């Protein structure tokens, strides 16, 4: 429980940024859609660049507080302040100056998030090496992650509404409240979790050698690339939904209902998928789940106007059945990959390295997705408050067809991932034999 709650704040951040930041920049700050998309892309690329550095350094850290928790503590404090500032509308008129300011602030916010998220993800492989236990531990973590998504998606507009008609103040207060939740949940994990002792030294290689070796691990790549494509597709849908409900259905309030149903279904299905994975494996569950999600967003985006808002909301709820696997399976797969690397490299532990590359790929996927959303909206002549028929086509594209392509590519690559329960057991047996 103490470990799992840490991802409540982490996923809250991911959700608020994914669902609302582009909308905030275009419709509240009045930054052009193209520049807003570029801000998100630059910030996420910077975020991704800092991931490997943080993972590499934390793997080599030895302190009385552990390898991971000192970085989480610093990152959580900085996250609180920068999250509030990110959603505070600056008094800047120039589009160029506004772009530079928001880019810098977004890079700083993402750096703080990296200091929390990379060490946090690296904790999981250290806590247990049991194949099914890792899935169960991930289920606890992701249950809190879904709750974080609930808070991040469902509480934003109600908080802002409390300060109506002072919308600017509402957005700012919301940012600081979300930052406070991120801070508190991280501090709980820091207090609750006791890291394994790593006082002994292990063979150390240079930064580039270490990451080159990791990226030459074919087993890792067959899990990494699907994860990045799935993140890209899901991030596009996240960023597009608020536009779809606001401008296609003309009912922005209905967005909250669809989101609650989507996330509630995801949360309820987590234990079901955990049980199913014990029978058919993590890979098969993940492929089936993202297939369901892909079909769901296609039906929603292309048939939403035909079937009507109520039926469209139900479709999004059913898509949550598939989205549930995205919360559990990839994070249960990663520790198995880490174990595979350790077995094949003399039991050298590189949790931080693989966690940083994992998060790096997700952030590149999210950066590309959010930037693509902004660029497509600009290409289809989107303007706040008065979207044209052409802009509506762009909104539909980023809600369904384009994300569906990323899902298909991810599933095709994931088919080649080799580690199942039998493969994993044989791998551990080989380690015991070599150690014996």
Q: Could you walk me through the main structural features you see in this protein, from its secondary elements to its overall organization?
A:
It is a single chain. The chain is built from 16 helices and no strands. With 436 residues, the protein is mainly α. Helix 12 packs antiparallel against helix 13 (351-379). The longest helix is centred in the last third of the chain and has 36 residues, at 309-344. The relative contact order is 0.16. The model has no long low-confidence stretch (mean pLDDT 86).
Helix-strand blueprint:
Layout lengths: L5 H23 L4 H27 L9 H18 L8 H33 L3 H24 L1 H6 L5 H26 L14 H9 L2 H31 L4 H28 L1 H26 L1 H36 L6 H29 L9 H11 L1 H14 L6 H15 L1
Describe the structure in brief.
The chain is mainly alpha-helical and 436 residues long. The protein has 16 helices and no strands.
Briefly note the CATH topology name.
Answer: Growth Hormone, Chain: A
Shape: globular
Mean pLDDT: 86
Let me know the largest β-sheet.
none
Q: Supply Rg.
A: 21 Å
Quick tags:
82% helix, mainly alpha, 16 helices, Growth Hormone, Chain: A, 436 residues
């Amino acid at each position: 429980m103490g470990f799992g709650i840490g991802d409540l704040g982490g996923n809250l951040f991911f959700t608020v940024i994914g669902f609302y930041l582009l909308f905030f920049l275009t419709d509240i700050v009045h930054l052009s859609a193209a520049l807003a998309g570029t801000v998100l892309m630059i910030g996420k690329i910077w975020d991704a660049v800092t991931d490997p550095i943080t993972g590499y350094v934390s793997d080599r850290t030895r302190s009385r507080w552990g390898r991971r928790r000192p970085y989480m503590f610093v990152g959580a404090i900085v996250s609180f302040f920068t999250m509030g500032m990110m959603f505070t509308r600056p008094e800047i008129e120039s589009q160029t100056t506004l772009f530079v300011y928001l880019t810098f602030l977004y890079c700083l916010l993402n750096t703080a998030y990296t200091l929390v998220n990379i060490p946090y993800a690296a904790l999981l492989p250290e806590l247990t090496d049991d194949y099914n236990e890792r899935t169960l531990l991930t289920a606890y973590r992701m249950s809190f992650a879904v709750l974080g998504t609930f808070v991040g998606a469902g509480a934003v507009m109600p908080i802002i509404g409390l300060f109506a008609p002072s919308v600017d103040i509402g957005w700012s207060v919301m940012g600081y409240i979300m930052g406070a939740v991120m801070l508190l949940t991280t501090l709980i994990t820091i207090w609750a979790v006791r890291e394994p002792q790593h006082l002994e030294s292990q063979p150390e290689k240079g930064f580039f050698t270490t990451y080159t070796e990791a990226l030459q691990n074919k087993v890792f790549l067959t899990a990494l690339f699907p994860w990045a494509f799935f993140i890209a597709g899901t991030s596009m849908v996240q960023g597009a939904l608020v536009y779809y409900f606001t401008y296609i259905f003309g009912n922005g309030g209905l967005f909250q209902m669809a989101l609650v149903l989507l996330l509630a279904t995801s949360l309820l299905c987590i234990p079901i998928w955990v049980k199913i994975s014990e029978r058919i494996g993590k890979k098969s569950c993940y492929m089936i789940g993202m297939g369901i999600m892909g079909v769901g967003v296609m039906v929603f985006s292309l048939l939403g106007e035909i079937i009507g808002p109520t039926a469209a909301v139900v479709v999004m709820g059913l898509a949550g059945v598939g989205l549930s696997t995205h919360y559990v399976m990839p994070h249960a797969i990663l520790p198995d990959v880490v174990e595979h690397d350790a077995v094949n490299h003399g039991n050298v532990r590189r949790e931080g390295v693989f966690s940083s590359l994992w998060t790096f790929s997700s952030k590149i996927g999210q950066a590309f997705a959010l930037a693509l959303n902004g660029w497509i909206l600009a290409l289809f002549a989107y303007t706040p408050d008065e979207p044209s028929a052409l802009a509506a086509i762009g909104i539909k594209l980023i809600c369904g067809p384009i994300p569906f392509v990323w899902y298909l590519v991810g599933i095709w690559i994931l088919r080649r991932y080799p580690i199942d329960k039998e493969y994993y057991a044989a791998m551990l047996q080989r380690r015991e034999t070599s150690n014996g």
